[in-house]
Design brief:
Blueprint: H1 9-21, H2 28-39, H3 48-57, H4 62-86, H5 88-98, H6 102-125, H7 130-139, H8 144-179, H9 181-201
Helix pairs in contact: 2-3, 2-4, 3-4, 3-8, 4-5, 4-7, 4-8, 6-7, 6-8
Length: 204
C-alpha cells in the first residue's frame, strides 16, 4: 500500500505548531487569511487549526474570524485552479506527487463528469484535502462559477459551523481548548491524515 503522505509526522507536527502559534500574535487575522489562502493550493495544515484558538479566545468575534477564513480559502481556490489550469505539468505535478494523489486525480475526473458542484462541495466541507479539488478543477477545466459557488457554500458552512459552535459553548470550549490543547492537536492531526486517506480510498 502506498503512503498517504510523504513527509514524516514530526514535520506535520512542526507545521501544525507553527500554524497554531499565530493565535498569540497581533497579526493573527492576516495569518488566518494567509493560511486559509495557501491551504487551498499546497499547504498541508487546514486553517481550522488557527481558527479554533482565535475564536476560543474571543467568541464575540466568531463571525469575523469565520468570514476571514472563508474569504481566504475561496481566494486561494482560484490559485489552486490556476495551478491546475495553467501549470499542471510543472507546479501541479509536483504538488500531486508530493501528496501522492496520482490515482485520485483520475477519480476526481470521473466525479466532476458526474456532478462537479457536489464533488467540489464535498472537498470544501469535509476533511478531504481541498487543494486536491481546486487543482484538479483547473486541470479538468471546471467552470469558475461552479468552483466559486461550491467553495463559498462549502468552505463557509464548514468554518461558520466550527466558529459558531465555539461561540455557542463559549467559556467551556475555551477552557477545554486551553487545558487539552496538546491532546486536541494530536486528534486534529489524526483527522488530517484520515482526510488524506478518505480522499484516496473513499472516493473510489
Amino acid at each position: 500500500m502506498k503512503k498517504i503522505i510523504r513527509y514524516p509526522f514530526t514535520v506535520v507536527r512542526r507545521l501544525y505548531d507553527w500554524t497554531a502559534g499565530w493565535a498569540h500574535k497581533k497579526s493573527s487575522d492576516y495569518a488566518l487569511f494567509s493560511i486559509a489562502f495557501i491551504e487551498s493550493s499546497f499547504f498541508p495544515i487546514p486553517p481550522d487549526v488557527l481558527l479554533i484558538p482565535l475564536v476560543a479566545a474571543n467568541p464575540g468575534n466568531w463571525w469575523k474570524k469565520a468570514l476571514i477564513c472563508t474569504f481566504g480559502s475561496v481566494c486561494g481556490a482560484f490559485l489552486g485552479y490556476a495551478i491546475g489550469y495553467l501549470f499542471y505539468e510543472t507546479a501541479g505535478i509536483i504538488i500531486v506527487n508530493f501528496y501522492n494523489m496520482q490515482d485520485a486525480v483520475k477519480i476526481l475526473g470521473e466525479k466532476y463528469a458526474d456532478n462537479a458542484f457536489l464533488a467540489i462541495f464535498a472537498g470544501a466541507f469535509t476533511p478531504i484535502p481541498y487543494k486536491a479539488m481546486t487543482i484538479t478543477a483547473g486541470m479538468f477545466k471546471i467552470s469558475l462559477l461552479t468552483l466559486f459557488i461550491a467553495s463559498v457554500i462549502g468552505r463557509g458552512a464548514r468554518f461558520f459551523m466550527v466558529a459558531g459552535a465555539l461561540r455557542i459553548f463559549g467559556e467551556k470550549i475555551k477552557y477545554t481548548v486551553e487545558k487539552y490543547f496538546d491532546v486536541l492537536s494530536i486528534a486534529f492531526l489524526i483527522l488530517l491524515i484520515a482526510g488524506f486517506a478518505a480522499f484516496k480510498y473513499l472516493l473510489k
